[in-house]
């Protein structure tokens, strides 16, 4: 759903990217997992407020593509590299809820699996359709999941653990529903 806002946000993202034009876009992509590891460390230490600030740093993840476009360094490998490192960062961020003891690992693994399937279904539809079909459907695409994870982190920082727990359950359920939405959309479009 936030994917549809991308064109409106493009000028702002390009403006944020300007100070980084001398940095290779693939290096910016590599910052995603590094920021995620800092987030993980903060969550394990119980520094939820700091973790929330670090999570905002994930905005750097959107700058790599803008830098590549603005400097003429767009490449297929860059797109692959970015998508792969996004999955790594996603797994680290979700793992923080298990590693910190905030959520049972069963739920953490369920969200990890569902999140990977959301990405996989999109990639696989693109592959089997020869790029003809692009699946950008569903309630919980990556942007939405990161926003909810920001909410989860905020509720933990405020000590609202019951709300955080139920929100995590909701995020997991909605992410599973998103997988179903993508499978259904694939059936209709392929």
How would you sum up this structure, described in words?
The chain is mostly helical and 190 residues long. It has a single domain (2-189), classed as CDP-alcohol phosphotransferase transmembrane (TM) domain (Four Helix Bundle (Hemerythrin (Met), subunit A), Up-down Bundle), CATH 1.20.120.1760. Helix content is 76%, strand content 0%. The mean pLDDT is 93.
Distance between the termini: 21 Å
Helicity level: over 70%
Q: Give the amount of beta strand, in percent.
A: under 5%
**Spans of at least 5 consecutive residues with low confidence:** none
What's the overall geometry? Answer: globular
What Rg, in angstroms, do the CA atoms define? Answer: 17 Å
Topology (SSEs and partners):
Blueprint: H1 6-17, H2 25-45, H3 48-56, H4 63-71, H5 76-99, H6 105-128, H7 142-157, H8 161-189
Helix pairs in contact: 1-4, 2-3, 2-4, 2-5, 3-7, 5-6, 6-8, 7-8
Descriptive key words:
mainly alpha; globular; Four Helix Bundle (Hemerythrin (Met), subunit A); 190 residues
Summarize the structure.
76% of the residues lie in helices and 0% in strands. It has 190 residues and is an all-alpha fold. It is globular and about 45 Å long.
